Amino acid sequence: MSAETLAQMERSLKAMEGPLGPVDSMPIESISVRRMALTLDNFDPIHYDEAAARARGYRGVVAPWPLVWLIFFNCREAPLVFDFGRATLHGEDSYEFHEPMIVGDVITVSAAVERTSVKRGKSGAMGVIVTRREFRNQLGQLCAVMSTTNLRR
Question: What is the DSSP letter of 47?
């Protein structure tokens, strides 16, 4: 890869940094929480019974953490658009959990390309894109952060 092509790739990636797509929201519904908990074989009563959840100090029935994926897939109008390469590979995800998501909450997702770089390897250069998604409830509390690393060749 020529130095000029590599420089163009770096400029293209740098231009992607910042907010990504519109902010979107989704309510946390009891049926979704129940189905997710059952799918995970998680029978903790905080996922089914409001009295049990409140007795443990929660505002209401607690959604299991994998529900962030349901929200992500339903609120994902934030496509990555590239002007180089032919394939995008999923590298990894990392998560932070803060406030629990509670049945009745409305979770708002915002996304941004947090950082980009070019990685040079034996088979050539590839773009590295790290996207950060924040999940906040209607009270403005941060519930979760999902960071995704994608690779572009």
Answer: G
Nearest to 62 by CA among 112, 104, 113: 104
Residue 77 has pLDDT above 80, yes or no: no
The percent of residues in the chain predicted with pLDDT above 70, rounded, is: 99
pLDDT number for residue 58: 98
pLDDT for the residue 26: 95
Closest CA to 22 of 108, 148, 139, 103: 108
- 3-class secondary structure, 127: strand
Pull the structure tokens for residue 148. Answer: 């995704």
User: Within a 13 Å sphere around the CA of 126, how many CA atoms are in the beta-carbon half?
Assistant: 16
- Say if CB 114 and CB 130 are below 8 A apart: yes
CB within 8 A of 5, min separation 6: which ones?
none
Give the CA radius of gyration of the chain. Answer: 19
Nearest to residue 103, comparing CAs of 22, 24, 36? Answer: 36
